[in-house]
TrEMBL record:
Cleaved signal peptide residues: none
Molecular function per GO: 6-phospho-beta-glucosidase activity
Classification via Gene3D superfamilies: Glycosidases
UniProt EC number: 3.2.1.86
Transmembrane segments: none
Protein name: 6-phospho-beta-glucosidase
PANTHER family: 6-PHOSPHO-BETA-GLUCOSIDASE, GLYCOSYL HYDROLASE
Pfam families: Glyco_hydro_1 (PF00232)
Amino acid sequence: MSFPKGFLWGGATAANQFEGGWREDGKGDSVCDHMTGGTATTPRYFTNTIKEDTYYPSHEAVDFFHRYKEDIALMAEMGFGVFRLSINWTRIFPRGDEETPNQKGLDFYRSVFEECKKYGIEPLVTISHYELPYHLMDAYSGWTNRKCIDFFLHYCKVLFEEYKDLVKYWLTFNEINCLIMGVGDILSAGIKCEDGPAQVLGLPSTREQLANRFQALHHQFIASAKAVKLGHEINPEFQIGCMVAGGAIYPYTCNPDDILKAQQDMRMNYFCGDVQVRGEYPHFTNRMFKEMGISIAMEEGDANILKEGTVDFYSFSYYMSTCSTVDSEALKAAGNVVMGVNNPYLKSSDWGWQIDPKGLRYLLNELYGRYQIPMMVVENGLGAMDQVEEDGSIHDHYRIDYLREHIKQMEEAIGDGVDLIAFTPWGCIDLVSVSTGEMKKRYGFVYVDKDNDGNGTLDRIRKDSFYWYKEVIASNGETL
């Protein structure tokens, strides 16, 4: 068993957590630009008005906007074959509904892609990664409004035509299923809201909230399908994929009710994939909507649009597994139904995420068995607190251990017959955590000198994992 020749090794980032350059060169406000900092215990807040003397992490992030040449050179030093990044929609269309794009924004990303090509790095571009223009939230209530489909398609058309000779790999929406998991009202859907906590995990949702989320998701499905078809018309060589928040889900016990609950919860991996890969809503949709007491509006022709706009590959994030149960006492003890019940056979990270490399092999087999198209693992990694030693070194053996075991299980999945073509660990250079707004929750091979309050030099420092990953790539996964 080994990784195939031409396997794409690299890393992943997102503009709202990495880029910075807020309002420079004509950039407009995104919904994430209205989210304050936070911690693991203090939630981020969303404010409709940007407040003075309040810290908004995305405004500077780690300043890739001014340091992209330095950062891409570091990626090249590691031997990257692919760099996953997102385009900030508001750098191209500041309000989201304009006819004419911002030329300075187009020029910036052209420079980034040209820098990648200089080193032989393939850009893997996420078109929408939690960066909806704030104006589309304020004026249209985001993706609940079908008009956003046309705004998105116009945005895609500009990108596809502008970069058709520089970018081959595209993703339409990041972690598209997060929209219906109770965490995506603002970031994923841009549903208009009052000032308040930016994310609510594990709390019951009203029927109206559920209906709004699924309606917004349907509009994103249509937008994605149309974008795939449009992209293939502009450049038949384009490879356009979906991106889903993935997770292995096990029954907590061998109680048949727990097994059925785990099967039901695994649908978080399948609901969006079925629509985007197979081109139709899955078999369980009607009963699911009936039990939720909701219905969504579909226009004539939507079914054909979904069928004609299926993706070329399936990509997903994988950080952890969880257990499902109907045992109310176990759920109560877990305290967070979104994260599920802890598996007693696994260890957890400092943020309570259970570490399960074998779950990645399990999930890869489940997904490939269902869809039979190429797979990419486009997010994976360990968020941890790194310590800079007096000599400037950073000994992150825990990150190496985490990634080593996950890479081993990817290799096992390839041996099982899974067509896995790429691996881009998350936050290859330290960036702001989207869930908590922190800097101390670090994922990167490269340390960025910045703290939770936005203080620091932004200097880049290679960690031990930098040199380890360089050897992994050079050996195509043979040296771990």
